[in-house]
Design a protein that fits this description.
Keywords: Ribonucleoprotein, Ribosomal protein, RNA-binding, rRNA-binding. One of the primary rRNA binding proteins, it binds specifically to the 5'-end of 16S ribosomal RNA. A hairpin with a 6-residue loop joins strand 2 and strand 3. It contains one helix and five strands. By secondary structure, the protein is of the alpha+beta class. A five-stranded mixed beta barrel has the order 1-2-3-5-4. It has one domain: OB fold (Dihydrolipoamide Acetyltransferase, E2P) (Beta Barrel), CATH 2.40.50.140.
Length: 90
C-alpha cells in the first residue's frame, strides 16, 4: 500500500529533530456547496533540523518514531527515491 504524502507549512521547530506541520485541505460542503477549509497539525521527524518556521514541506507517513511522531519530512533526495520506486512498480 502506498504511503500518504502531505504538504503543509512549518508552524514550530522548537523541539530537537521535530517540526510541527499545519496541513490545510479544502473541500466542498455537501449541503451548502461552499468551499470549506479544514486544517490539522502533524508532528514530523526532521533529522537534520534544516526546516524553519514558515517553510513549506512535504511529509510522508512512517512507522511510529515516538508517542506523537508518525511522519517524516520528505527531502529532495528521498522524494526522488520515492518517484523512482513508484515508476519501477508501474
Amino acid at each position: 500500500m502506498p504511503k500518504r504524502i502531505l504538504q503543509g507549512r512549518v508552524t514550530s521547530d522548537k523541539n530537537e529533530q521535530t517540526i510541527t506541520v499545519l496541513v490545510e485541505r479544502r473541500f466542498k460542503h455537501p449541503l451548502l456547496h461552499k468551499t470549506v477549509r479544514s486544517s490539522k497539525k502533524y508532528r514530523a521527524h526532521d533529522a537534520l533540523n534544516q526546516f524553519k518556521v514558515g517553510d513549506t514541506v512535504r511529509i510522508v507517513e512512517c512507522a511510529p518514531i515516538s508517542k506523537t511522531k508518525r511522519w517524516t519530512v520528505l527531502t529532495d533526495q528521498s522524494a526522488a527515491a520515492l518517484t523512482t520506486a513508484a515508476a519501477d512498480q508501474a
